[in-house]
Amino acid sequence: MSDYVLFQMWGPHRSLLIEQHEFYVREARSRLLSRFENIEADADKAAEEWLAESGKWFGPDDDAGSFYEAANNVSIQHYQMLSDMREQTRLSVVAGMYHQWDKQLRDWLVSEIQHWHHGDHVRDKVWGADFASITDLLESFGWPIRTTQYFKSLDACRLVVNVYKHGDGGALNALKQQHPQYLPDPFASDRGRPFDVSRREHTDLRVDDQQFQAFADAMPAFWRAVPENVFGCNMEVVPAWFEKAILKDREAMRQKRDLRS
Questions:
Q1: What is the greatest pairwise CA distance in the chain?
Q2: In whole angstroms, what separates CA 190 from the centre of its chain?
Q3: Within a 10 A sphere around the Cβ of 179, how many other Cβ atoms?
Q4: Helices 131-139 and 149-166, interaxial angle, to 10°?
Q5: C-alpha Rg value of the chain to the nearest Å
Q6: Which residue in 54, 56, 138, 202 is a FRET match for 171, CA 20 to 30 A apart?
Q7: DSSP secondary-structure letter at 47?
Q8: Dihedrals phi, psi of 161, to nearest 5 degrees
């Protein structure tokens, strides 16, 4: 193939993609996740408010022990609900972060392709291809992306987001096999033995602060690693799905020319 530039990551565009991602993470932390930093105190406050309200009906013959036990149950229940909401909020932020990166990547690929190729088949295939197929296309640049740590984090993030979105299914089975740390057993240490990840369900999905940060770090690492220029001579072998889509577009253009002639 020629030395014509097929894909180019323009410096200011690279910087913008990283800036948008970092803004998303920063604002999600400050506006959403930070609200769950003191859920213990929030649970205690809920118990105190229950005591204050219920105390209006506390009589001399009532059992004070049962009264405070009920308040403690209110605290425990409030803490559990806030804890569940914290986990769901963090997963929602992770999903938004991943989908933003995924759409920006496909949009960049399509925009670059349109500089040298026209047709609906390639565009539709890039937008509809699964993660493995897109990775194959990136590796055809001469970019060994699958060997990198940020790719491993992105792949784990993809599975986490799919389990969060769809529940049971292929993504959950893949997560159990490849990244069981996102399906932790809260009682594993109490039992003193490793937990059986095969028994875990989609409702057990968790992403802790360190794992969240690893996902957040992977996306700018990816953008920084995108080759500045990918020449035609770099792409000696492209994925079969990509080549087939190009040939379909060329055939469609040939048929249009034949109809006009």
A1: 101
A2: 31
A3: 18
A4: 160
A5: 26
A6: 138
A7: H
A8: -65, -40
